[in-house]
Amino acid sequence: MQLTQLELLAPAKNKDIGIAAIDCGADAVYIAGPSFGAREAAGNPVEDIAALSEYAHRFGARVYATVNTLLYDEELPEATSLIWELYNAGVDAVLMQDYRLLQQDLPPIELHASTQAVCRTPQQAAALEALGFKRLVLERQLSLDQIKAIRNTVSCELEFFVHGALCVCYSGECFLSEHLTDRSANRGACIQACRSLYDLEDADGKTLVRNYPLLSLQDYRLDSRLAELAEAGICSFKIEGRLKNESYVRNTVRHYSLALDRFIAENPQYRRSSAGRVTGGFTPNLQATFNRGYTELFINGNRGRWLSGDNTKSKGEYAGRITAMGEGWIELDGTVTVNNGDGLCTVSDNGEQTGFRADRCIGRRIEIKSSEGLRTGQEIWRNYNIAFEKQMRSDSPERIVDVTVDFSADSITAVSAAGASVTLDIRGDYPPALNIAGAVDNIRRQMGKRAGVYSFHVISVDDSDVRFYQLSVLNGFRRKLAEMLDERMGQIMAARRTAFKCTDAPLPLQKREAADGELMHSRYCIRYELGLCAKHGKRADDRLLRTDFKEPLFLVNNGRRLQLAFDCKACEMKVLACD
Q1: Model confidence pLDDT, tens digit, residues 516-550
Q2: CA torsion sign, 548 to 550 to 552 to 557?
Q3: What CATH class does 4-194+213-286 carry?
Q4: Angstrom distance (rounded) from CA 466 to CA 459
Q5: Where are the alpha helices (DSSP H) in 245-383?
Q6: Where are the beta strands (DSSP E) in 204-299?
Q7: Where are the domain boundaries for CATH 3.20.20.70 in the chain?
Q8: Fewest Cβ atoms closer than 10 Å to its Cβ: which of 255, 332, 400, 425?
Q9: For residue 257, what are the contacts with CB-CB under 8 A and spacing of at least 6?
Q10: What stretch of H or E contains 47?
C-alpha cells in the first residue's frame, strides 16, 4: 500500500526556535533569510539557516526559506542571489510571492507559491501549477469544499494553515497598511491596522459602533479538522507565527504533532513525512499561550461571528470573576490555580487590556500591586502562566532516531529510521576474543547506546569471528556511525529536492498596488457580524449604538476614513480608500 505523507509545518523566527520546533515534532519549518521575507522583523543570517537545515535533515525534516515579498525591479538580482545562497545552505524549498522571480536564473530547487501569491480558486491554482510550483499555499478563508475543488483541478502539493493569527483580508491583496503609513504588507512591513480601534459611521455621520476593533479576527484553530483536511487533499498542515516566541512554537507544535499522530494511528494509509520518536516533555495547552480566542472560520462553508472583539491581544485562559477584594488583593471564583508571578489582565468593553501581576498567592487570595480600577464581579484572565512556562523550559521533549546495527569483524552496518544506511569498515589489529559470549554481550551493550540524536539497537553480531574491542573503541565506532548518518542524511535530503523547471506559461497578473481604491477584500463582513445583514437576517448585537443607518458605511480612526462596500451576491466585503 502506497502511504500518503503528511507534514506538520512550523514557523521559526530564528534558528533556535526552528530547532525547538523540530524537537517537538515538526516535520518541516519555514524561516526567513536576511531579506525579502514577509515578516520584516524575522530575518536570519544564511549561516543560521544552514545550521538549522543540517539539524533538521537528521530526522528527514525539511527547511523552507521565505523569499515572499513583492520586489522592485532592481531587487530581482539580489533576491536571485539570495535564493542561490539558500540553496547552497541546504534549504529544501523556497516560498515566493513575486512571479517574476520565476524568470530569473534560479538554482535547481523546489519552489512553493506563498499564500501571498493568491490561491483561492481552481483557476488560480491551475495557473500557479502551470508556472512550475511544486506546492501551493492556499488562502485561509476557504471551505473544505473549495479545497476539494482545487485538489480536483491540480496535481501539485497543497498546504493549508491550521493554526494562528488570521488576516482579515484575502492573502496578498491587503494595501491598508501601505495606504495609512506607506508600510506595505506585501513588503513585510504590515502595521496590523486590522487590530486597531475604529468607529463605524454611516453616510450621515451617525456613529453605529464606537472605538471597537472591527477588523480584528480571532485566531485559527483546526486541530479537530486534520482528518477532513487530509481527505480533502492537504499534505502540509501549517502553523502561523514567524514572530512568535519559542514557548508559543513549542506548545503549538507539540499539540498538533500529537493530534496528527493520533489521526495516523487510526488511519494507516498515512504517515509522517519525517522520522524520529518524540519522547517525554511537557503536556501542551493551547489556552496557556498567545491567542485571541479561536475560530474555524469558513472551513464548514458557513458564516459565523469571527471577530476577536475584546481580545485583539492575548488574554489567555479564563481565571475567574472577582468575588472579593481589598486594597492590593483580590479573590477569584475560577478553578484555575494562580501562581506567584502569573500575568493577569482585564479587558474593557472596547477591547483594551489592563495587565497586572500576581505578586503572591495565598489560598484564594491574590496579592497585587494595586487593585485600583478593579471591581467585584469583573472577569480576570491569565495571559502568562509562569508554571507552564517553567515546565516547557525544564521538561522539553527529546527527538530520537532509531538505528538498527549489524556487527561483524569486518564492518558495521547501521540503518536509521529516517532511511539512511551506512557501513563502517572496522578491520584492524584487534585480537580474537577469548570469551566469545562475553565479547558479544559487550558489543551489544556498548553499541546499543545513544550518539547524538541516534539511538542504536544491535540486531545481529556475527559470532563466527569475534574480536576483543576496548570500550573506547566501541564508543568511537558508535560516534563515527552517527557522523556518517548525519552526512548521509544530508545527501539524501539534497537528492530529494525537486528542481524547478521554468515553463512558458504566462505570468498571471499580480496586484502590486491598490486598484480603484480597494485596500482590502474579505469574506468577513461587518454588516453580518453586527446583525445588519438583510440577506442573513438580523439579530441584536450589544456593540451597536443604533440600528438605523444610511449607506455607505465608514470606518474612522484618528480622522482617517475608510469606506465599506458590500458584495452581497458573493457575500464579501471590501474596504476602500476615501482620501
Answers
A1: 899 999 999 999 999 998 888 766 688 899 989 99
A2: negative
A3: alpha beta
A4: 15
A5: 246-266
A6: 207-212, 219-221, 236-239, 270-272, 277-279, 294-295
A7: 4-194+213-286
A8: 425
A9: 8, 24, 25, 26, 278
A10: helix 46-57
